[in-house]
Amino acid sequence: MSNDRTAGTSRRAFLRGSVAAAAGAVAAGSARAQDADPLITEVQDWASGFGAGVDEVPYGLPIEFESDVIRRNVEWLTADTISSINFTPIHALDGTITPQGCAFERHHSGAIELKKEDYRLMINGLVETPLVFTYADLERFPRENHVYFCECAANTGMEWAGAQLNGAQFTHGMIHNMEYTGVPLRTLLAEAGLGDDLADKWVYVEGADASSNGRSIPMEKALDDVLVAFKANGEALRKEHGYPVRLVVPGWEGNMWVKWIRRIEVTSGPVESREETSKYTDTLADGTSRKWTWVMDAKSVVTSPSPQMPITHGHGPLVITGMAWSGHGRITRVDVSRDGGMTWETARLANEGENKALTRFYLDTTWAGEEMLLQSRAMDETGYVQPTKAQLREVRGENSIYHNNCIQTWHVKANGEAENVEVS
Ligand code: MTE
Ligand code: CO
Hints:
Blueprint: H1 2-27, H2 38-41, E1 84-85, E2 106-107, E3 120-125, E4 131-134, H3 135-138, E5 144-151, H4 168-172, E6 175-184, H5 185-192, E7 202-207, E8 215-218, H6 219-222, E9 227-232, E10 235-236, E11 246-248, E12 261-267, E13 282-283, E14 289-290, E15 299-304, E16 316-325, E17 331-337, E18 345-346, E19 348-349, E20 359-367, E21 372-380, H7 389-396, E22 409-412, E23 418-421
This protein binds ligand MTE and cobalt (II) ion.
Cobalt (II) ion is lined by residues 106, 152-154, 254-255.
């Protein structure tokens, strides 16, 4: 009963909202319902004949009208396209799952083509029995499904010095969120036999591409939630995401998610490879470097409105939306500010936050053409609150590239256009 009443109340509130919306639309110059609209009064081409047959597209791509929802590069970042990066069009997506076809790619030596039949995964080093698995072998172990985000440690890295790139795709698009199917790494390690003494043991993981992208992972994490994954969003991994098998290292920097994984060596300490010494470390103001910065801290961004998603619909109802994530666990709350962080409103989470996965948030509001300094601020289950840029700079200086999780600001103007800015 009480639920019904609540639903009734909110429906009435919504109806009042739509009256306001219609009034706003008229004010903004849209057609009124009584004007003749040929899209309603005339028979359209698509209703006067047949559509496409089911035999025309064995595997579908998005309809041509969505052809701008694509990965994009930043030209000055892309000296060559082999050792390079592109960005997920997060501004144009909704919900939480990233389709593989537009999920960002980061390769150090290009995306390789490796057939399942040619695939081998070796586990060696300090194990009782070194083993080699074929793809078919991996499919015979009990498997699990989990949704996780993968964020490159360099995501938002270009924004350390100042507001630079005009679009959520470019400032925050080195992230994707997929449902992975795979075998827990601990299952394969147990098959090889780890023995009883796990103290100071690590695993060193490397890929089959020329770069090999070798990284050391402490045993505690390797035995926790790391997956040896072969499916993403229900289908085979795409070539660019590591077909046929990649490592999934939940909540930790994307660089450790080794693609085309070919070898896992159990070691008595970290290898200190190139990817974890000269790269993926940050120099602080006093000249010392941060190392082993594995976890991606809580972060969020408003995806619409944003520079690539201006407000085009006039005054009245406005949906502000974005996404939040934390490598430490679940997102518990996201606040949105329209005045550059002076006042905050708590956003609605579309779903309860999931462990180390993207959470979608909405602020269902109204807009009367006022300028906004739009921000979002994520909180996770550990109580951590996403910092401002000033707070982050205070601790980390200005020489960093990686792990910039500061609050982002979009300046939304009276005409609905938005720009990347910094507030002090
Ligand atoms: N694994 C291999 N073998 N080679 C690589 O170049 N790039 C890493 C990681 N795994 C890389 C790799 C980096 S830096 C990131 S951010 C993620 O893969 C990106 O994964 P994606 O291309 O599926 O988005
Ligand atoms: Co990366």
